[in-house]
Amino acid sequence: MSSVTFYALLGSLLVGLGLYGVIVGASALRKILAFNLLGSGVFLLFGVIAQRGAGAGFGGDPVPQALVITGLVVAFAATALAVGLLVRLGESAGLDDVEDESEGESS
Amino acid sequence: MSAIFDLALLADFVLAATALLLGLWVILTADALRAAIGFLVYGLLMAIVWIRLDAPDIALTEAAIGGGLIGLLVLGASTRVPPAPATARARRRWPLHLLAALLSAAVALGLAAVVLSLPDPAPSLAATVAAELPATAVENPVTAVLMVFRAVDTLFETVVLVLALIAFWSLIPDASWRQRLAWLPLPHPSPALVLLAQILLPLVILVALHLFWIGASLPGGKFQAGALLAGVWALAMVAGVMQPPAVTQRLPRLLAVIGPLVFFAIGLAGIWLAGDFLAYPVGFEKPLILLIEVVLLVSVAVVLGLILAGLPAATVSLQPQLQRAASQPRPALPSDQRSEPFLEDRP
Question: Which residues form the domain of A33?
Fold first, then answer.
């Protein structure tokens, strides 16, 4: 059991946790948060793989590390777009259209 | 020796367990505001995790963007979106929750099994990067990957940022197109906040420029510095020290696109001067990379800051408009004051 093992497990569990939140999240904003948690888990798995590839005097494989930096910035852009859509929807249409509680009694 | 090792192992365990508990908090807590605050703290904790994984460049990015900027964004949104109505129907949806939990557990366990059984020794490009590093005139391997080996990723990432800003701004209703972006400014910022913003503004700019400059040889670089600049710009707008711009102003638009444009132009010039797209001519690597990094820093900071500044305040809400439409015949409006088409389609 090494330190990297903990973070590998943490990354896997965060992906599962985020997936659960995306499916059952009580509101669209909570689903956005859960989606970010899922993405964070994926980035962490990437980081674990980078760390396993340490060598040549580097603490980790710099290629996956650079890709995670790219991914973090793009994740921010996607989150911003989702939040913007949500806020505009709330302003213009009322929140009933955002929640999936209003899908109907039959579910 | 082994005691020190065990202590490090214990610290890693505590860190991982705390991050997992914070993740649980973000998913399970009842209140959206609490979840957003939990996510902010989670982002800062993840920055420490990245340090433990020997990735200081990612740690800086995570602390600035993953924790700071996304946290600020969802924190603002959680106060802007009305709270979800409490519903009795949620109790009846437990089969869905159970299925989702089972699916998520299966995914998590499968991933864990895969990650723990990865081949040893792990495949790695570290040796290749180390061998080619002297040719790039950059000493930080992560910066070398971002600016040289995988420059095309970085180029299109900045294009994605600009596209995200365009998509974000396309949500602005026509009627409020000319107004200033309105998510950040407080109506009555406290004097302490104004003082903090005034003191922090020059200091953070200095720190960001330092972080940018050392990025060639040490952890740091344009994304981290750009996120810091965007963050302190947001603070200045919250405190009223700086006015948020309007979407129609030309300077912010120009600064937002100058980075990808210059990067693209240099990349295209590389076809003739160095034989390949995004190749740098021999002897000019350092000045060209520096030029690209400077314009990208400006663009990243401006785009992130403009997204944080949000959208203009909604001038018209749906209900009064519907009532007006129902009670009186619609007068002929000038085109820029007319309500949006999709609102008129509603019954």
Answer: 3-99
